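Hypothesis: this fold can be encoded by more than one sequence.
Test: take the structure tokens below, design a sequence, compare later.
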């Protein structure tokens, strides 16, 4: 399991075409990718299971805790990205709720765009 940052502080100022915003690049794939939005309510949990393909969890709002194959949980919050490799056992839970984007694809390398925590 790896933890990355995609918050505003890790983004790049974009000014082309009269733009004025910050973009934090996350991932690029050549192979098909499944992208979903996950809502964990208060006390929500994604039970301990193996990743079928490499998986990237992007925490948008709220906070929670994640673990890989060790029993140690790591706290995550808005702006954190968690990456699990194919076959890696993992779990996500939240005491007060969190919303996250989940990207799954055979070809994910978040280190190309994001820095680790």
């Amino acid at each position: 399991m790896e933890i990355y940052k995609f918050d505003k502080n890790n983004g790049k100022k974009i000014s082309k075409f009269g733009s004025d915003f910050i973009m934090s690049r996350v991932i690029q794939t050549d192979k098909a990718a499944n992208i979903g939005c996950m809502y964990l309510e208060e006390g929500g949990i994604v039970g301990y299971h193996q990743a079928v393909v490499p998986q990237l969890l992007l925490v948008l709002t709220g906070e929670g805790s994640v673990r890989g194959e060790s029993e140690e949980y790591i706290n995550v919050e808005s702006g954190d990205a968690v990456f699990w490799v194919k076959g890696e056992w993992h779990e996500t839970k939240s005491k007060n709720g969190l919303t996250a984007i989940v990207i799954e694809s055979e070809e994910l390398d978040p280190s190309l765009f994001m820095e680790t925590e």
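The CA atoms of residues 66 and 92 lie 4 Å apart. Residues 2-116 form a domain with the Jelly Rolls fold (CATH 2.60.120.10).
Hypothesis status: open.
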